[in-house]
């Protein structure tokens, strides 16, 4: 595949699937990804399963016993997938991913439910988004339904041992990734690509701290960016490519030195100070308008600056369904909200905080799930964000409960 049209951020899932179909139909000799061809070679040396919330968990190095690898070549398309023992990759020093950032990935989780079942959460969205990301960096598309089947086959092998039924309420982090690994050193799309899938125990960043460290106060403290920008209109901020992440690490480390958990990435910092994302998470603000209505606001997708997060989309879907007038889900401090996707500026946040109109803020994502925000440092002034009961805003707590119930099987829901 040597050319494509970058899909619209407002229809990432549908366009990713359609681009894959169009490409394959125009190249009948090219094989699509086919889960039915998966071969399985089981390991003879099992890896130790770390204890919950242990140092091994927090090291995020303890991958499961197996991994999946699928090769793509320019002349044949997708080869047969292989499930094999976990181990190192071998690539040439001239590989495209090492020089031209032809690399993308996904982040998702598999959950051990309280009913004993293993569940993925909306995996169709992650698989389709990986197609969108791959196209943005000139990697080949595939049928996302087949990737979902391969993920399930992988978890049928490693899930029972690494997420035993004796540990309900636990999860593994899944990392499907694609790299251009052909040998040619040239400024062009790679002629060979590797898709691989890993699973690793992951700490619960929304509730716990590393072993031996003092307990953290509830809520994240965010440091608003000043000079650095994570993404820009028309760029690739809407995709999960490595080039979105590595350049942000310097700002992240500087923020932590100053006592902040994440960077709140702003755009157009000379004037508007537009709020985009918090670290690698989507950002939500709940506030009162001057007319007295409650709004839940998050940045829009149309400028291709932010990621169409699966947790973000789920928050929006649940809020639009349940946080409405007359809903049986409303009680106590939780009233109806207007769900708004629009550009939000820190000048507006600063003004609302000064006028006492802020209700709460939180971040959403696979890593941090739903985590409340307690403070934002903007222009070297710390703005306190209300925290409801002192540990979380009421909306964040309720959304976290709803999503957790779906993920762990406490309620029957199509997303689980």
Write the layout of secondary structure elements.
Elements: H1 12-25, E1 39-40, H2 55-59, E2 66-73, E3 77-78, E4 82-85, H3 96-100, E5 103-105, E6 108-112, E7 118-120, H4 123-136, H5 144-162, E8 171-180, E9 192-201, E10 220-224, H6 249-257, E11 262-267, E12 274-278, E13 281-288, E14 294-298, H7 310-322, E15 338-341, E16 344-345, H8 346-354, E17 358-365, E18 369-378, E19 381-384, H9 394-407
Parallel strand pairs: 1-4, 10-11, 10-18, 14-15
Antiparallel strand pairs: 2-3, 2-4, 2-9, 5-8, 6-7, 6-8, 8-9, 11-12, 12-13, 12-16, 13-14, 13-17, 17-18, 18-19
Helix pairs in contact: 1-4, 4-5
Which keywords apply here?
single chain, 416 residues, alpha+beta, D-amino Acid Aminotransferase, Chain A, domain 1, D-amino Acid Aminotransferase, Chain A, domain 2, 2 domains, nine-stranded mixed beta sheet, six-stranded mixed β-barrel, 19 strands, 25% helix, globular, disordered N terminus
């Amino acid at each position: 595949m040597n050319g494509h049209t970058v899909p619209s951020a407002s229809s990432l899932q549908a366009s990713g699937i359609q681009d894959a179909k169009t490409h394959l139909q125009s190249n009948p000799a090219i094989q699509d990804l086919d889960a039915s061809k998966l071969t399985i070679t089981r390991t003879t040396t099992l890896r130790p399963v770390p204890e919950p919330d242990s140092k091994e968990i927090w090291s995020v190095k303890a991958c499961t016993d197996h991994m999946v690898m699928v090769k793509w070549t320019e002349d044949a398309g997708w080869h047969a997938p292989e499930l094999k023992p976990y181990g190192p990759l071998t690539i040439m020093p001239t590989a495209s991913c090492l020089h031209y950032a032809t690399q993308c990935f996904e982040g998702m989780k598999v959950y051990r439910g309280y009913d004993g079942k293993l569940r993925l959460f909306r995996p169709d969205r992650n698989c389709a988004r990986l197609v969108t990301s791959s196209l943005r960096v000139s990697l080949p598309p595939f049928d996302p339904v087949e990737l979902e089947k391969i993920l399930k086959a992988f978890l049928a092998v490693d899930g029972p041992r690494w997420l035993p039924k004796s540990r309900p309420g636990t999860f593994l982090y899944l990392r499907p990734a694609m790299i251009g690994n052909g040998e040619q050193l040239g400024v062009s799309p790679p002629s060979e690509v590797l898709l691989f899938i890993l699973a690793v125990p992951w700490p619960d960043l929304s509730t716990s701290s590393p072993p031996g460290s003092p307990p953290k106060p509830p809520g994240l403290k965010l440091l608003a960016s000043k000079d650095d920008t994570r993404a820009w209109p028309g760029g690739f901020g809407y995709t999960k490519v490595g080039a979105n992440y590595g350049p942000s690490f310097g700002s992240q480390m500087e923020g932590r030195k100053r006592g902040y958990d994440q960077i709140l990435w702003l755009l157009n910092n000379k004037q508007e100070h537009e709020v985009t994302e918090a670290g690698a998470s989507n950002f939500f603000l709940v506030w009162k308008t001057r007319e007295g209505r409650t709004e839940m606001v998050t940045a829009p997708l149309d400028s291709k600056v932010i990621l169409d997060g699966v947790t973000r989309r789920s928050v929006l879907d649940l809020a639009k369904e349940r946080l409405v007038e007359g809903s049986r889900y409303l009680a106590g401090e939780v009233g109806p909200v207007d769900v708004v996707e629009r550009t939000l500026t820190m000048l507006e946040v600063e003004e609302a905080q000064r006028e006492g109109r802020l209700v709460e803020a939180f971040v959403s994502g696979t890593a941090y799930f739903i985590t409340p925000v307690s403070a934002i440092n903007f222009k070297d002034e710390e703005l306190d964000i209300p925290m409801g009961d002192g540990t979380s805003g009421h909306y964040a707590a309720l959304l976290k409960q709803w999503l957790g119930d779906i993920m762990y099987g406490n309620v029957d829901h199509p997303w689980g």
